[in-house]
Amino acid sequence: MSETEKSLNRNAYLSRNVGEFADDLIVVGRRYVKVEDLRYGTNPHQSAAFYKPDGISCPIGDMKVLKTGKSGLSQTNLEDISYALNIVKFFDEPACAVMKHVNPSGAAVQFADEPLRDVYVKARDCDARAAFGSVVSFNREVPEDTACEIMGTFVECVVAPGFTPGALAVFKDQDKYALNKHIRIIEVRHIDSLPRFTGEAQCVHNTLKVLADGSLVVAAPLTTSLRGVDDLCPAEAQNKHCGEQKSEKIPDEQQKKDLVAAWYININVRSNGVVIVKDGQALSVGTGEQDRVGAVEQAIWKYRNKYKGVSTLQGAVMASDGFFPFEDGVEVAAEAGITAIIAPPGSLRDADVIKRANDLGVALVYAPERIFSHH
């Protein structure tokens, strides 16, 4: 490849590839209006446009770009923004999600009275290597010290309900932070209006999936019935092999909070997915595996090889987005030090899994539904 070709290839990521997209369109009987033509779609050679439902307030569709770069947003930026907000929307406490390729490389919620800067560091350090070039979202106004910490590494976009003047000055200081001169700073308000719990969603939030031949699947959004720690219940099941079984170990109060946090984060992980959490911090995320125990093994490997924080797996909790078909997933988790797990029921071997969890001293609680996400 010549130097000219190399230059053109690099510049493609900073250029706009504008297609011919209508100003409005009708989808499933609803009118959508174009917000803007995007920099490009998933890749620089794909054009794309961004639309929102007409006449309806939309947190993402109505977002304000306070600082732009790279000639605007791409489809990949918007998808990461959406999934990152889909995590922090669940928390009343300050929370941060670090998104990469529509999976969280890390996430964290405030533990004790941590400042927002520390919450961000915990989310980043779950997988600091993967966080390079990420989208970072918050459910709180971003202060100056948090902005300084963010600008210490390469970040594509920061999304939050607001930014202090000091934080905006940091984000716009291209002389001091040349690595991040193209960082996009985006204000998204009313995050709590995004659908969270089953029964709350409006039809405007239905999801659309376009198949290879242009066919459409229209589906209700992925929400959960798990509203908090009071909805956690010990796993119970029975079968002919081992009779009636009930989880014997009870998670402590912090573990209960961590189980709920792990569940909310896992809703936005590509299935099969597991999330390991301790003291409000995701320690690792296992994602996209074709077998469940493989997702657990991947998460433990990532903790041991990529985690940059100070927590250990001992006493951590884990969320699984689907049931355990065999005991092996619980066994691998317990061997690593995990002592509480949340997962939905549904396996013919549920009772066997509960019995094995009891043998290993692991608390097993049932979630109200499966949360597979086939992004």
General description of the model:
- This protein is of the alpha+beta class and 375 residues long.
- The protein folds into two domains: 19-193, Cytidine Deaminase, domain 2; 229-366, AICAR transformylase, duplication domain (Cytidine Deaminase, domain 2), CATH 3.40.140.
- It has helices at 3-11, 75-88, 116-125, 144-150, 165-171, 253-266, 292-306, 328-336, 350-360; strands at residues 24-27, 30-37, 49-53, 64-67, 95-100, 103-109, 134-138, 155-160, 184-187, 207-210, 216-219, 233-234, 236-239, 243-246, 274-278, 281-286, 317-320, 340-343, 363-366.
- Strands 4-9-8-7-5-6 form a six-stranded mixed β-sheet, sandwiched between helices.
- The two termini are 35 Å apart.
Fill in the keyword field for this structure.
Cytidine Deaminase, domain 2; 9 helices; six-stranded mixed beta sheet; 375 residues; 2 domains; globular; alpha+beta
Largest sheet data? 6 strands, mixed
| CATH level 1 class label of the largest domain | Alpha Beta
CATH topology of the largest domain: Cytidine Deaminase, domain 2
Count of helical regions: 9
User: What separation lies between the terminal Cα atoms?
Assistant: 35 Å
Strand order of the largest sheet: 4-9-8-7-5-6
Class computed from helices, strands and strand pairing: alpha+beta
Shape: globular
Q: Determine the strand fraction and express it as a percent band.
A: 15-25%
For this structure, the quaternary state is: single chain
CATH homologous superfamily grouping of the largest domain: AICAR transformylase, duplication domain
Domains, number:
2
Radius of gyration, Cα only, in angstroms?
A: 21 Å
